[in-house]
Design a protein that fits this description.
Blueprint: H1 4-13, H2 16-27, E1 30-31, H3 32-39, H4 43-55, E2 59-64, E3 67-72, H5 74-97
Antiparallel strand pairs: 1-3, 2-3
Amino acid sequence: MLTPVEAELIRVLADPLRLKIVTLLAHETLCTTHLVEETGARQTNLSNHLRVLREAGVVDTEPCGRYTYYRLRPDVIEALAGSFAELAATARTTIAADTKRACP
């Protein structure tokens, strides 16, 4: 069973723009200016999405002069992937055991 924190992470990552940001940050650390260029999103919209990702613990920030750089936290993504792997393993066991709940 997924924890409430993991369920929140799924909700956070379900947004297409946030998923695009996470995908870009998987390849390199970027500032807001770079992310605006790469996504085509407006700066205010992008900043709001980055705030959500930061609050969910998906990204870390690094101030650099007047810019803020964003870095993906792979441990968070790996933990979520591990939870899905456990669900898949449970489903495989259930299928192999042919477990069914009887109808009333």
